[in-house]
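Please go through this protein, sequence plus structure tokens, and consider how the sequence yields the tokens. Keep your notes short.
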Amino acid sequence: MVEGGDWDRLEDAEALAQRAAAAATNVAGREAEAFEASVMLTDDAHIRELNKAWRGKDKATNVLSFPAPAPPGGHAGPRNLGDIALAYETLVREAEDESKAFAHHYAHLIVHGVLHLLGYDHETEAEAELMEGLEVKALSTLGIADPYRDMAA
């Protein structure tokens, strides 16, 4: 769903999101077909509102994840993991600042969001190392370089 931002710049955003989400679920040891998630492509103003309402942070961010509650037993069909929201202007700015292709940064944040929906986090150093390792592995299956490589230097 597109709620704001110039997302037409990204060719076939839905297909790339599907591939990135599948890569994330696969590296997490899950079957991609067993899960689904909604992705909202929005702008900084809208994500700032969401960030303030849900996290108490009055600023734009690149990605937000909203996990869905686990369904009661016996649920048939793919499980809805929840929702991911991405902010166009923030993604553009970050990609430019980090000299990354916009599509690669977008795919990275889809992977990041899906891993959050699967229960991964980066609150501690150990959690961050695990999550970043999964992100790098998922992105490599998409032909995307390690987004953390240059940040470590």
About this structure: Strands lie at 35-42, 63-67, 79-87. The helical segments are 13-27, 44-55, 88-97, 102-117, 125-141. The radius of gyration is 15 Å.
